[in-house]
């Protein structure tokens, strides 16, 4: 099946066109330019949008605004193209892109999103502790931002420019299961959006 996958949960939005597990093209850039990146990939490999068999979208956690952009794009494209959608955790995709690594996404507010016992959490990086970090490779923009804290806890962080820190959409396509209606794909927020917190919702 020909799949278009994308993730806008972090500052670097990624997209990929994957056909039966083979990556035909990939792109990366600011979330606001996601559709431009998608267009470039489709044109580069001479694929018409109507040929797509399914969509895969990153569910986060990550930037609230970025997540909403990605989900809105997935829902609009699914409606226009009459295709099913699957959602994939951005943390799971990061981890799958670097097997054995701990995914760490910058959550702002001096916190990171990561996985503890397989569950997504928002936590201060200095609370992760050496039991979790010792000898562990950490990947993601949160690992880059809090490199000093994580390395002090015993973690290993790849160089800042490493591709391992980017949630590649081609990995999302490989992880995708259970395609269905776009409206059934829910974001993983972990904590309330800033606006709700300010308004006391």
Task: Give me the secondary-structure topology.
Blueprint: E1 2-7, E2 13-19, E3 22-29, H1 34-44, E4 54-58, H2 64-81, E5 84-88, H3 90-97, E6 102-106, E7 112-116, E8 119-123, H4 130-133, E9 138-139, H5 141-145, H6 147-152, H7 169-175, H8 194-199
Parallel strand pairs: 1-4, 4-5, 6-9
Antiparallel strand pairs: 1-2, 2-3, 6-7, 7-8
Helix pairs in contact: 3-7
What is the count of β-strands? 9
CATH topology category name of the largest domain: Nucleotidyltransferase, domain 5
Pick out the low-confidence regions: none
Secondary-structure element string: EEEHEHEHEEEHEHHHH
User: How would a textbook summarize the main sheet?
Assistant: 5 strands, mixed
CATH superfamily of the largest domain: ATPase, nucleotide binding domain
* Highest CATH level, the class of the largest domain: Alpha Beta
State the shape.
elongated
Number of discrete domains: 2
Cα-atom Rg, whole angstroms? 17 Å
CATH architecture of the largest domain: 2-Layer Sandwich
- Number of DSSP helices? 8
Strand content: 15-25%
